[in-house]
Each structure stands twice: as C-alpha cells, then as structure tokens.
Amino acid sequence: TKHYINAFGEELMIENAEEALKRACMQTNSIVSEYSAGPIFMQGKEKGAHEWMIEFDKEPENFEQFIDCLDKGLQEVNSDYEAKRYNNMTLNRPIVHKARTKLFIEWMAS
C-alpha cells in the first residue's frame, strides 16, 4: 500500500485526500470512518479516474453531492489533480462506492 496516488501526474497525497474528505463531510453533514482509493487506468480512449471505497459512520443525505464535494475539495487542495480534472482532460470524476459497515475491519481480520 502507498499513501499517495500518482498514476497520471496528479500527485494526490494522503494529506490531500484527508483534507478533501473532511471538507466533503462538513459540507454534507456526514462522517467517514474508513476509506481506500486507487487509480483506474486509461484503456483505449477512456480517461482515467480514481475509485474510492468509503465506509461511513454517518452517511450523507445526498451521496452525489458528497462525491461532487470530494472532487471539488481534491481540486482545491491539489493543483496537479485540478489540472488533470480540468475539462476531464486526463481524469474523470471519481467513482465512489459506499462500503457496508465494518467492511474494512472484517477484511483486515480475515
């Protein structure tokens, strides 16, 4: 495991991810307990993206708004990510999945 994603030159550090998650949670009145993220590599003409798995202690009422806030927050705290997201030049909007409760802890225990 690594604490950054740099598949496309976006240099997304864990500090960027955690700040963007914090902002998204504040804006959507939600609480994240665990998360993981990784790149989706380009295939053919399809652009890349980041794919997230997020476990919530308190889910946002509007999950799509949460994703938009996360994406915007990542762009605000990381100019390299913002450049790759500009007009979906290199990166598409993140794909985010809601993890069921205790998914991460059960996976680690197994």
Structural overview:
There is one protein chain. Helix 1 packs across helix 2 (63-77). The chain has helices at residues 14-28, 63-77, 79-85, 103-109, and strands at 4-5, 12-13, 31-40, 49-58, 95-99. It is globular and about 35 Å long. The strands form 2 sheets. It has a 3-stranded mixed sheet with strand order 3-4-5, covered by helices on one side. Strands 1-2 form a two-stranded antiparallel ribbon. By secondary structure, it is of the alpha+beta class. It is 40% helix and 26% strand.
CA-based gyration radius? 14 Å
Overall pLDDT: 96
Instruction: Please write the string of helix (H) and strand (E) elements.
Output: EEHEEHHEH
Q: Can you summarize the main beta sheet?
A: 3 strands, mixed
Helix content: 40-55%
Beta-sheet strand percentage?
Answer: 25-35%
Give the number of helices: 4
Spans where pLDDT lies below 50 across 5 or more residues? none
Could you give the count of β-strands?
Answer: 5
Which outline best applies?
globular
By secondary-structure content and strand pairing, the structural class works out as: alpha+beta
What is the rounded distance between the termini? 17 Å
Record the strand order, biggest sheet: 3-4-5
Summarize this structure briefly:
The chain is 40% helix and 26% strand.
Secondary structure layout:
Elements: E1 4-5, E2 12-13, H1 14-28, E3 31-40, E4 49-58, H2 63-77, H3 79-85, E5 95-99, H4 103-109
Parallel strand pairs: 4-5
Antiparallel strand pairs: 1-2, 3-4
Helix pairs in contact: 1-2, 2-3
